[in-house]
Specification:
Length: 341
């Protein structure tokens, strides 16, 4: 039996159509949701391109790319595909065909520098697989986080919490913390202000800025608006978390914690209530939003690890260089930004 080659179709997908197409992919993440890419384009120098991979008439993969063209009409530029291309699973040879198609379209035909962070677990692809698909491996580690199955009963999820997390949670519930939730108005605006103050105070760079979160919230449909969960003590903000939903999953996207909130274990208090609220809404999986033993600050890592989610790491980023000298120059700039040498 001769296997048909996958066919790439680039199209200007409408919001509803795209979200319906990608909603069933098991590897779906926020970075492949329509609203996230549009928020990046609204707040930065990006344009968005989306494509569907077909086996006959059957969709077997999809991707959403952020594209940045070179200035002054120069040929080439950067194509960044984060946590894509999405793939339904099955034979790995099909995923490699999908990757070949991406390389052909962007690097070979359009002369772009193509950088991809595949949604494939670390170790699933060999260096030979990557090279055979027309890419080169990079030194940039893949995304690392942890996922929690939300389908068990609440009492089982609570019992499985790490003891050093469950104890502070019990203590916080005996205090006088007050919870407020919301997706709009003052609750959301207060979160953004606290989030930006936290970033400025710690002096670290992040792509998850208040400006991006505001744009994302504006673009999300009502039923998928991000939800803020804030804990207050005697009228003062103690801790807050921001949860986002996609497919049948939710993600802990950002959080804030004051010194007083840390003393009161408000972080455990508010995150547990956020998790239970997302479970009640029908979410079947929680992603803790980044938990990397090599990159995540120790305190944050231990806090997220306390919910007893299953750690995972995706394969290293890969690249394909098109466009001759301009492509190589873009590669150098990207590698410098990604600390990839």
């Amino acid at each position: 039996m001769i296997r048909r080659m996958v066919r790439l179709v680039i199209e200007n997908f409408a919001q509803d159509n795209w979200n319906r197409l990608v909603g069933g992919f098991p590897s779906l993440s926020l970075g492949q949701c329509w609203e996230y890419a549009e928020a990046k384009a609204r707040t930065g120098p990006w344009r968005v391109e989306r494509g569907l991979f077909l086996d006959g008439d059957q969709p077997v993969g999809a991707f959403q790319a952020l594209v940045r063209l070179l200035p002054a009409g120069l040929p080439g530029g950067l194509v960044w595909i984060n946590r894509g291309p999405l793939w339904r699973g099955g034979e790995q040879t099909q995923f490699l065909e999908i990757m070949k198609s991406l390389r052909s379209h962007y690097a070979d035909k359009r002369g772009m520098y193509l950088r991809v962070a595949p949604p494939v677990l670390d170790g699933a692809l060999t260096v030979g697989d990557i090279r055979a698909s027309g890419f080169m491996p990079t030194k940039t580690l893949g995304w690392a986080s942890a996922a929690l199955d939300l389908t068990p009963p609440e009492e089982d999820l609570r019992r499985n919490l790490k003891s050093k997390w469950r104890g502070p949670l019990n203590h916080s519930e005996r205090g006088d913390l007050e919870i407020k939730t919301g997706s709009q108005g003052k609750v959301f605006q207060n979160f953004l202000e606290e989030h930006d103050r936290l970033i400025a105070g710690r002096g670290f760079a992040t792509s998850v800025t208040g400006e991006l979160l505001a744009a994302l919230q504006d673009l999300l449909p009502v039923e998928r608006k991000m939800e803020v969960f804030s804990a207050y003590h005697q009228g003062a903000a103690a801790a807050s978390v921001l949860m986002v939903k996609y497919g049948d999953a939710c993600e802990y996207l950002a959080g804030n914690l004051s010194a007083e909130g840390r003393r009161l274990n408000a972080g455990q208090f508010v995150l547990w209530r956020a998790i239970m609220a997302m479970k009640a809404l029908g979410c079947r999986r929680l992603d803790v939003g980044g938990m990397d033993p090599k990159l995540t600050p120790e305190g944050i890592y231990k806090f997220k690890a306390g919910v007893a989610a299953e750690p995972y790491r995706l394969t290293n980023e890969v690249e394909a260089v098109g466009g001759g000298l301009p492509g190589r120059l873009v590669r150098r700039l990207v590698n410098r930004a990604r600390s990839d040498g």
